[in-house]
Amino acid sequence: MASYDDVMSLSVRRGFLWPAVDLYGGFAGFYDYGHNGVLMRRRWEDLWIETFLGLSDDYHLIDTTTILPEPALKASGHVDHFTDILVTCTRCGESYRGDQLLEAATHEEHEGLTPAEIDARIRDLKIRCPNCKGELGPARPFNMMFPLEVGPTGKDRAYLRPETAQGVYLNFKREFEALRRRLPLGLAIIGRAYRNEISPRQGAYRMREFLQAELQIFFDPATFADGLRFDAVASTPIRIAWATEKNQPGAHDIAAKDLVARDLPPWYVYHLAAVQRFYLDGLQVPRDAFRFAELDEKERAFYNKIHFDIQVKQESLGGFKEVGGVHYRTDHDLKGHEAMSHLKQSVTFGGSKLIPHVLELSFGVDRNIWTLLDLSYSKGERVVLRLPPRIAPVTVGVFPLVNKDGLPEKAEALHANLRKRLTVSYDESGSIGRRYARMDEIGTPFSVTVDHETLEGKGVTVRERDSQKQIRVKEADLTDTLDRLLAGEVTFGA
Ligand code: GAP
């Protein structure tokens, strides 16, 4: 079990991530990634791309601007509706998110309440300012976008994008044409999003600048299910917490076909199964630490008709926390852009003319990275980060057993060879035990040691991080053995 301080301290010590701009006293809601954090993030992104763009040959990655003009975000609804409820102390002026004040007092979530409802509950629960115990002022909506003035006159109002999704919608028509006018069409962006969070907290969980990985699938609701192999997932148990159960710790296993029987569209459930596979198989999240949590009408984002959060249980953050979402956005966004731009967003496909609907698979990259650090953290006599091998920043450590007798030269040559294909770290400083410990702390799954027997042609030792077992492998077989271990085709010692 990892506390918040355990994870943050390891993160800082070993170059994963830390609060930004600490030279100037910090900058709330902003985090920087170090050398291991960037590598780990890229591995997560590679697996995400492989998994979700792998769902169809018609799914692609694009990239778009992070600043958007006001009309585009007016059309999407963000200018008018992208708000959180702000409560300010009348004595010290400290600002709070209304739902978080209620959550701190009751240990339950209170999303989707109106300012009047928040005021009433603050009164009922007699909540005072957590900072100075002063009286709290009236709750009011606060738009979370960062406004900008573009150009020297400042007349062109714009915003830093609050989600990557809008960049995709603005480019849908171009890509539809370029990709030979087919539905379903998937367009994904991995990129930065910005939100002026009222009270950023809990490390990478609530940031003001963060990374999203979002896939927008444009489809015709009348035919989407026909092209999917629902039968392949029909019996798969999906981990579900219904909206009424979100403050409870567990989840139900409900077969995909039974979710369809409860009126969820088969194409929606098919993608729940795909997301669950990504977490349970790809990221190796334990089954009981994963669930989809349904959001009811009051809680879901203004653009969603069906919305389940993807949640993972994290000790460092006190329980199940949202790391992503599966959103049925209907034709809300394309319709909005059509109305504002006066440019038709409808397309003709399969004999019908329609504005495509959108299923969005949305993930917070930073939240996912934090989640994996939390779940992998294990502390016994030493700290070991039991990351899935594919996600570990460094894949193989290479060491000479001692710094003499030609062992460093041999180990360096081995390192130079392995690094052509893998991320490899060479280390000759300190005792061999300390070098293993350093690799364990950053999650390196395998370490290769060159010893005197290596020079006699008797191979190298390969050590596994989790079991600390060592096997001897012939030099000629080393790359093949590492490849097979990494692919999970063989387990250690087998
Ligand atoms: N395009 C849909 C969308 O933006 P969202 O639920 O508002 O939906 C998507 O955000 C994901 O982005 C969330 O599931 C979360 O993982 C991540 N996210 C949202 N706000 C965040 C923040 N302040 N800090 C870090 N990650 C955040």
Q: What does this protein look like?
A:
By secondary structure, this protein is an alpha+beta fold. It has three domains: 4-61 and 159-377, 2-Layer Sandwich (BirA Bifunctional Protein, domain 2), CATH 3.30.930.10; 86-96 and 102-143, no CATH class; 394-486, Rossmann fold. A hairpin with a 3-residue loop joins strand 20 and strand 21. The model has no long low-confidence stretch (mean pLDDT 95). It binds glycyl-adenosine-5'-phosphate. Glycyl-adenosine-5'-phosphate is lined by residues 163, 165, 195, 197, 206-207, 210, 212, 214, 322-325, 360, 362-364, 366-367.
Total beta strands: 26
Structural class: alpha+beta
Quaternary structure classification:
single chain
Q: Fraction of residues in helices?
A: 25-40%
Attached small molecules = glycyl-adenosine-5'-phosphate
What distinguishing features does this structure have?
15 helices; five-stranded mixed beta sheet; Rossmann fold; 3 domains; alpha+beta; nine-stranded mixed beta sheet; BirA Bifunctional Protein, domain 2; 26 strands; 494 residues; binds glycyl-adenosine-5'-phosphate
Which secondary structure elements does this structure contain, and how are they paired or packed?
Elements: H1 4-13, E1 17-19, E2 31-33, H2 35-52, E3 59-61, E4 67-69, H3 70-75, H4 78-81, E5 83-88, E6 95-97, H5 98-106, H6 115-124, E7 140-143, E8 147-150, E9 156-160, H7 165-178, E10 185-194, E11 209-219, E12 237-241, E13 252-255, H8 256-261, H9 266-282, E14 290-294, E15 306-314, E16 319-330, H10 332-341, E17 347-349, E18 352-354, E19 357-364, H11 365-376, E20 377-379, E21 383-385, E22 396-400, H12 407-418, E23 424-426, H13 432-441, E24 446-450, H14 452-455, E25 460-464, E26 470-473, H15 478-486
The structure holds glycyl-adenosine-5'-phosphate.
